[in-house]
Each structure stands twice: as C-alpha cells, then as structure tokens.
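During the reporting period the student researcher (J.K.) took over the structure-prediction task from the postdoctoral fellow and processed the backlog of single-chain submissions. One of the processed entries is reproduced below for the supervisory committee.
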Amino acid sequence: MAGEPLTLALQAPIEAALARLRAGRGERCLSEWCFSNLYLFREVHAYRYLPGPWPAIAGCSYDGARHLMPLFEPAQAPAEVLRALSAAHGHLYPVARDQSEALEPGRFTATESRDDADYLYRAAAFADYAGRPLAAKRNQLRRFLAAHRPQALPYAPVLEGAAREVLAGWMAHKGRAGGEADEAACIEAFAHAGAFGLEGFVHFDGARPIGIVLGQMLAPGVCAIRFAKGRDGDPGLYPYMFRHFCRAFEPQFGRPLHWLNFEQDMGIAGFRRSKMSYRPAALLSKLRLAPAA
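J.K. obtained the following structure tokens:
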C-alpha cells in the first residue's frame, strides 16, 4: 500500500497542515480536520499518510469508497496534480463547499452524501433547551434531575478508569461485544486525551460513574463532540451532559463556546434520529470530487 501508516510520530506535520485548513473557517470547519480524529479511526478507514509537496491522507470512507483527503487547499494545486492524485487514490474527500467553489469551474464534479454531513448546533441551544422544538429534551432533563444528583469532574488521567467503566457499561447496554463499535478509539482517546487536546467531563451519580463527554476545539468557540457515552438508557442523561458541557466549558477551560459539531451520522438510523432531535442549526456538506469526464 502507498504511503505510511498513521503513528503518533506523524502528529506534528499532519496537525500543522490541518490547522492551516481550519484557520479562518470558524464553525464551518469539518470534523475530520484534526490529527486525533484520523489517528483514532486509522484502522476503520485504513488511513495512510502520503508526504510530499502535496501531502494527503489516503483511506476508505464508511461506505467503502476509496478517497484522498488533501492536507492542502485544493485550489492551490495544479489541476493535473489533483487529477493524478484522484486517479491513484479515488475521489478527493472530504472537501468543504468553499474549497470546491474555489476550483476552476468544469474541471471537477462534486457529489455529496447526507450520511457524511456534520451536524452543527448553537451551544446556547443546550443551555436551557428553550422553545417548543426542544420541549422533549427539557422534559427528559427535568425527570433526570428529579431522580439523580449528578456531579461532574473535568476529565484527567486519574479518571481514565472511571471513563472505561462508563464505556464498558455503554457497550453492555448496547449489546456490543468487545472490540465492536468505537470501543478501541474510545480507549485510546482516554489514554491520549491530553496530547490530542480532548477536553470534557466525567459524570457521577454518587460514586458511580455514569457518563462522559469529550470534545475538541476546531476553531475559537467551535468544539467537535468526539465521544459521548452513558452507561444506561436513561433518556435524560445525554441532555443533562450536553447542557452541562455548554454551561461549564468556559468557566472550566477559560475559552468561550459558541458552536458544537456532532460529526456525521454515517447513515445509521438511530444516530440520525438522535442528532436531529437536538434540532441542528445547519448540516455541513462534505463533498467528494472527481475529475470531470
């Protein structure tokens, strides 16, 4: 296979390139544009790093399509370079809409899948779940707080065991065997949270850990929610954890929070229902580009 497997030794050059892509895009940053996200899901997507004057990440999307993630602005590369990369590694993906619009018209065709789109929310919407569309979340939260006295601690290495206990409970509740779902990615995220810039909270009901939310800043005021796990099926646990995250983030970490990115739903019906139930402000398209015939 072409390229190098993703290792922690590659974090600095890849993250530097992705930081240039994120710069100035605010809430329109794509959730994939962080080294940690690529590294944690390197096996699922068979990611390989292609260094050189036009560096990129080769891999396979969730639907099995081969693709190449440019670690540069596509409009800065000669058209023949983009054609050669696409011919060798599949379509260019994910490409933001503004990146596609910056290319010379007619050279590439753009397609998109609803399954790939990132869910974007205003953080203020989680503060009180105000308004009729979020009434169900308010009710779930009220019932949860009537039955529990939750407490939260900022995630730190000393809480890794508690986080893994939550994950094990989540796996059992979902009926998943070891190694299924995103268990491996979660375990690595807990271990490398500091190095990856993952921040969040572990939630307890008394001494019992019941949930964890870890996010990562994509841009000033913009946070991707990378992992949110609850160990049982209480419908109010997630509304409580997301409300707490949005209320406590700035006091705890000293930075404002205006937007949450819940990443894509991968076409999984349950994920889609859950993410839509929080009423996203927008869906961020991720385009697939192929040379025009």
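The committee noted the following: The CA atoms of residues 143 and 236 lie 7 Å apart.
J.K. will present the remaining backlog at the next meeting.
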